[in-house]
Amino acid sequence: GQNIDQPTEMTATEGAIVQINCTYQTSGFNGLFWYQQHAGEAPTFLSYNVLDGLEEKGRFSSFLSRSKGYSYLLLKELQMKDSASYLCAVRDMGNYQLIWGAGTKLIIKP
Amino acid sequence: KAGVTQTPRYLIKTRGQQVTLSCSPISGHRSVSWYQQTPGQGLQFLFEYFSETQRNKGNFPGRFSGRQFSNSRSEMNVSTLELGDSALYLCASSLTQAKNIQYFGAGTRLSVL
C-alpha cells in the first residue's frame, strides 16, 4: 500500500532549529514535496526533492534519501510566523498523483 | 498574476442536498486537482482534470463528480450530501499534468447539517 508518516505535532522555541521528518512507502516515486499551511489558509509550496541530498532555500532546507524512503524539512532561526502545519507529499511514478501525509502541526513558543 | 480562486469560501447545507464548488486556476494553468481535507487526515485526492478531461480519480463514491471547461475553470459537485462530507475542499492548479508544482486556492469549507 501507499503510506506517508509524519509526526502529528511538534513544539519549538523562537530562534531555534527544528527538523520535521517524513517517511514514505509508495509503489513508485517521482519526487517529494513540502508545503506549508497556516490555519484557515491555502497550502503553499516550500520545496521539491527528486534526487538524494539537501536542497537549501533561505531558512528552510529539505533532505531526501530515496533508498530509506525518508525526507526531512529543516527550519532554522524559527520565527513566530512559522507556526503552521507542514505537509509532505510524494508524487506517484505512474499517474503523477500526489499522495499526502496528514501533516505536522508546528507550534513556536517565544 | 492572480492566484487560484475558489468560490464560495463557506457553505452550509443539509443532508440530502447537493452542492457545486467552483475553481478558477492561475492563468495559463491547464491542470486542476481537487482534494478533501479533514482534521487529522491528509489531503485526500478526489480527481484531476487536464484539458477538459478527467485524468485521475481518487477513491470517492460516485456522488462526487467534476468537470473542467475550455477556459480551464473547474467545478466539483457533490450530490446527496452526507454528514461525513463536511470538510475543506481544496483546488490546486498546475501548468501541466507532469510538471506538478501545485498551487492551491484557499478552499471551500462545507458544513453538512
Structural commentary:
The complex is a heterodimer of chains A (110) and B (113). Chain A has 110 residues and is an all-beta fold. Chain A contains no helices and 11 strands. In chain A, strands 2, 4, 5, 9, 10 and 11 form a 6-stranded mixed β-sheet that branches. With 113 residues, chain B is an all-beta fold. The termini of chain B are far apart. In chain B, 37% of the residues are buried. The interface between A and B is medium-sized, with 23 and 24 residues.
How is the topology of this model organized?
The complex is a heterodimer of chains A (about 110) and B (about 110).
Chain A: E1 3-5, E2 9-13, E3 18-25, E4 32-37, E5 44-49, E6 53-57, E7 60-65, E8 70-75, E9 84-91, E10 98-100, E11 104-109
Parallel strand pairs in A: 2-11
Antiparallel strand pairs in A: 1-3, 3-8, 4-5, 4-9, 6-7, 7-8, 9-10, 9-11
Chain B: E1 5-7, E2 10-13, E3 19-24, E4 31-37, E5 44-50, E6 53-57, E7 64-68, E8 74-78, E9 87-94, E10 103-104, E11 108-112
Parallel strand pairs in B: 2-11
Antiparallel strand pairs in B: 1-3, 3-8, 4-5, 4-9, 5-6, 7-8, 9-10, 9-11
Keyword list:
heterodimer; A: 110 residues; mainly beta; six-stranded mixed β-sheet; five-stranded antiparallel β-sheet; 11 strands; globular; B: 113 residues; four-stranded antiparallel β-sheet; 0% helix; 50% strand
Gist of the model:
The complex is a heterodimer of chains A (110) and B (113). Chain A has 110 residues and is mainly β. Chain A has no helices and eleven strands.
* Category by helix and strand content of chain A: mainly beta
Alpha-carbon Rg of chain A, integer: 13 Å
Q: What characterizes the major β-sheet of chain A?
A: 6 strands, mixed
- Label the overall shape of chain B: globular
The separation of the N and C termini of chain A measures 41 Å
Quantity of strands of chain A, as a count: 11
One letter per element, helices H and strands E, the order of chain B comes to EEEEEEEEEEE
Q: State the low-pLDDT regions of chain A, or none.
A: none
Distance between the termini of chain B: 37 Å
Helix content range of the residues of chain A, please? Answer: under 10%
Largest interface: A-B, 23 and 24 residues
How are helices and strands ordered from N to C of chain A? EEEEEEEEEEE
Round the mean pLDDT of chain A to the nearest integer and report it: 93
Global morphology of chain A: globular
Estimated share of beta-strand residues of chain B: over 45%
